[in-house]
Amino acid sequence: MPALRIDLQELSTFLDSENDSITTVNVETVEPNIDSITHPIEQIVFRILKEKPSLRADKIWRLLQRDANSELRTLDSDNVISEMNAQHLEWFGAGANDESSMSYDSFRKGLVPRVKNKMKNRTN
What we know:
Blueprint: H1 8-16, H2 40-51, H3 57-68, E1 81-84, E2 88-92, E3 99-103, H4 104-123
Antiparallel strand pairs: 1-2, 2-3
Helix pairs in contact: 2-4
């Protein structure tokens, strides 16, 4: 799997411009071990949590939302997220016309804990 390359200075500037307490996620040094994760949003969350495992789901959501609504995407490097707001996320699936969606609650209560459990099971 090819390495993910992100301009860390641009990411830092992007995050700092929002005047938020979220620290910069340095995903460049992460070697993704996501072979068993096929869900595109889970893959993005996995890469973020690999670098910053203590981030809560709400912080991850805000990072993704900022990234999805910016012209230069650094976290969603494959541009799978088609639309995102405070309560809803839509992304492109495997098919040409395949689009899926998820609510913030599903992300917070389902997807993020599922990724954290997968990560925990890998280390055991």
